[in-house]
Fold:
Amino acid sequence: MATQPKVRKFAGDLRLFEFGAGADRIAVIPDTDDKFGNKPLEQSSLTFSYEAGDTTEIKSKRRDDRYNQIIHTDANPGATSLSIGALEVPPAILARMLYGSAVSASVEAGAAENLSIAVHSKDAPVKLPNRFVLAVPAPVFKKGDVDLVVGVDYAVDNRQGILIPLPAGKIQHGDVLTASYSYDGYLQTAINGGAVPNKSFMILGDVQDRISGENGLLRIPQVDLTVDGDVDWFSDEPIQVTLTGPVIFRSEESALYTFEVYEQKAG
Structure:
């Protein structure tokens, strides 16, 4: 019986887990309905690259035709790298765009009472600790025992949680104000940009050959990813980023990465 040519056309779900403390692996797109608790990343490409290692050649210096001919060669192992074309930008990938680290948190609705707010410069907006500051009850800001007046001494960006000193008001450089306000609950991702050029991820790939129907499991224990090239934040098109970086050999693993193809036997 003739064997069908193994023409391949792969599709797959890539799940990225960011390295946490110790053995912790943090789902990049948490989803309680997903079997792995981690929704697959919407992506358009997965590319492996290999850069060959240095080659050592030993050449003969004998006379005649053997002169300068290679009699021994030895090639050192090379390095494998990975590239992913991401079509969506969850917080962990957004942090890669800023070359920083991200911390996500759920903030419950609450109130701040007599909170100290330092004003380093009256010419610059002052960020409050909370977003979605409520207009009712009205926020109260004091300088010592003196109540400051909204619209005269300051303005507030309630959504961003920003205090804006007004030029003719009582707020001066170096003042320490007290603030009392209520705020709504919200989800927040804070990114400290510019500090972390790359981050370590584990990748699981649930792969299918679209032609033969064979299934495959790709497992990459560690790849250190960063954003390749510049990203236009204000592009007319939805942002797409290319994540790239070296695949790292971990000491507890038996291989740099593994890919297993499997097909269920007919009953």
In short: The two ends are 20 Å apart (CA to CA). The first strand starts at residue 10 and ends at 19. The mean pLDDT is 91. Residues 91-97 form the longest helix (7 residues).
